[in-house]
Amino acid sequence: MKGGYPPSSLILQGDIGGVKDELHTQLICKGFCEFYSEGKDSMLCKAYEVVRDAVPVERLQEILEKSQTTSPTFAFDTFIRGHICAECDFRVDGCDYADGLNSPPCGGYRVIELLKEHGI
């Protein structure tokens, strides 16, 4: 798992306006994505969009804090690839993970896997 979790004080503020919001970016991208780069706030994967739009940031932080020591099992790989990765804009240029190459999935994928494991 890359990075850590922001302190609770960060979660109490924020706004989902715009392409990315700082709180979801902190939790999903900075916390889980090996491909994340500062300054690329206009770029987001489909998994980020799904999590941002479906899970309030407070709930997301709660689940991810409980899962800090849990690695995804990839039990929902077929579902995620078929319903989320298939719609991802990054697939245009190719996604090494989705294409079956030796690459980790994006942070959004990893977060969705954890959410699915928690019944969300």
Structure description:
With 120 residues, the chain is an all-alpha fold. Helices cover 43% and strands 0% of the residues. The chain has helices spanning 8-11, 22-32, 46-54, 57-66, 77-83, 107-117. Helix 2 crosses helix 6 and helix 3 (46-54) packs across helix 6 (107-117). The chain is globular and about 35 Å long. The relative contact order is 0.20.
Protein traits:
mainly alpha, 120 residues, 0% strand
Write the layout of secondary structure elements.
Layout: H1 8-11, H2 22-32, H3 46-54, H4 57-66, H5 77-83, H6 107-117
Helix pairs in contact: 2-6, 3-6
Distance between the termini: 20 Å
Assembly level: single chain
Largest sheet: none
Label the structural class. Answer: mainly alpha
Mean pLDDT score, rounded?
79
Give the tally of β-strands.
0
Rg, Å, rounded: 13 Å
Proportion of beta-strand residues: under 5%
Poorly predicted runs are 1-18
Element order: H for helix, E for strand: HHHHHH
Quick recap:
The chain has 120 residues and is mostly helical.
